[in-house]
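debug: dumping io for the single-chain case to check the tokenizer round-trip. Nothing else runs in this session.
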Amino acid sequence: HGPVTTHPSYSPRVVTRGSTSYHYNYVTRNNVTIMQRTHVYGGVTVVRNYHPVVYGRYSYYGYVPSHRWNPWYYGWAYSTWSNPFVYTWWWATSPWYGYYGYYYRPYPHYYGPSYWLTDYIIADYLSEQYAINAANARANAAEANAAQQAAINEEVKAQLRAQVEENLRLQQQQAQPAAIGTTVRDLKHIYVVNSDINATPRDGGPACALTAGDLIRLAASPSEEDQIASVQVVTSKGGSCAAGSQVVISIVELQNFENDFNEKLDNGMEKMKTELPGQLPQQPTEQPAEQSIDQPVEQPRMPPEVQ
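debug: decoded output
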């Protein structure tokens, strides 16, 4: 394939989403350059690590968990039960849920932890997007652009849940989450948009917006020489690109979407320890323990603000 090129989108920078600034920088260890993202959440500095992954001639950065749970915890998380349980979410009365009620509903019953994790992830995207819209004073009525809306149905949620379970199986085997070279070959795979982006329609029409919580999948697998991919909008909210339309997205963005999805899954695994005990038909027999994964200890340098 020739030499591998790191995509120019990867450079020290600051990305602001709502009120949170994410600082991206790079550290090198054992001759491997790792991308680190640093932000402050609840007064705590959070550092995420991304290792290089290669697809064709290009190198991208894929999320790597900072710790692993006991293998049995992953197995328990993707297990299913014959007797479901009912769970009342802490955000059930939050404004964002009422606002996006036309687009998303949680499962009425939970047949296993992976169902709960799927709802946790979707809700996290939508609550973040609502907060950003409110902060920017541009939240539209839920009825806006009704012709373009397509809600998240059971079939789509089942695919997302399958991706959650596959990720859990990989981590149980001490493998990394699926990288871009794997996901772009699976035309069923759904990517969850994690931020506002302007997308170019394939038909040459005017650019349209994709926002956090919109769901897309590849219309065709890109070749190893491509840096962009054609995707179909699976579900969309008011103001987003129309459901069913095809737009062009960079492969860097697709990897970023996948990184964020995997991070939210890790957050959900952590949250599940404290939120679910006492409410489950089958509880873990012991408290899951963490094992830290060897990561760079060098503190990332904060780059200057990038416009």
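debug: round-trip ok. The first strand starts at residue 5 and ends at 6.
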